[in-house]
Design brief:
The chain is an alpha/beta fold. The chain has a single domain, classed as 5'-nuclease (Rossmann fold), CATH 3.40.50. It has 7 helices and 5 strands, in the order βααβααβααβαβ. A 5-stranded parallel beta sheet has the order 3-2-1-4-5. Helix 7 links the parallel strand 4 and strand 5. The model has no long low-confidence stretch (mean pLDDT 95).
Length: 135
């Protein structure tokens, strides 16, 4: 089974001061033990690095990216122009929601890749398309 990993999950895993750190760490360990395949997007990686740079440190952003690549546990899917177009359609349609553009690219990517579950702390995944949000 593939699970999409959102920015909030990466932040919780990386920042020990994050309120969801312990829950994220336990869930991540369980996923590794069960052999789940994890996927994310280049947009999510960028958003996570920007957050870590601004809120934690430049060094933490660098360590995050280095460890992500070295782990071999994550598939980083590049957001294509067709995914961006689909994401923009979602963004335009849901003016009543607080979906970020990155959220919308994640939704479009998950739909195209037939991924139904997200490792996320953001309730937007449940609001759009009833994706299952874990943990």
């Amino acid at each position: 089974m593939r699970i999409f990993v959102d920015t909030g999950a990466f932040i919780a895993l990386t920042d020990k001061d994050d309120e969801n750190h312990n829950k994220a760490a336990i869930f991540y360990k369980t996923m590794k033990e069960k052999g789940y395949r994890l996927a994310t997007s280049n947009f999510v990686v960028c958003e996570t690095m920007n957050y870590l740079r601004a809120k934690v440190s430049h060094q933490m952003a660098v360590v995050f990216r280095d460890n992500l690549i070295k782990s071999g546990f994550f598939e980083i899917i590049t957001v294509t122009s067709s995914i961006e177009d689909a994401a923009f359609g979602i963004f335009k349609q849901y003016s009543d929601k607080r979906f970020s553009v990155t959220d919308c690219t994640s939704f479009a990517l998950m739909k195209s890749q037939k991924i139904k579950k997200a490792f996320a702390f953001d309730r937007h995944f449940e609001q759009y398309n009833n994706f299952t949000r874990l943990p």
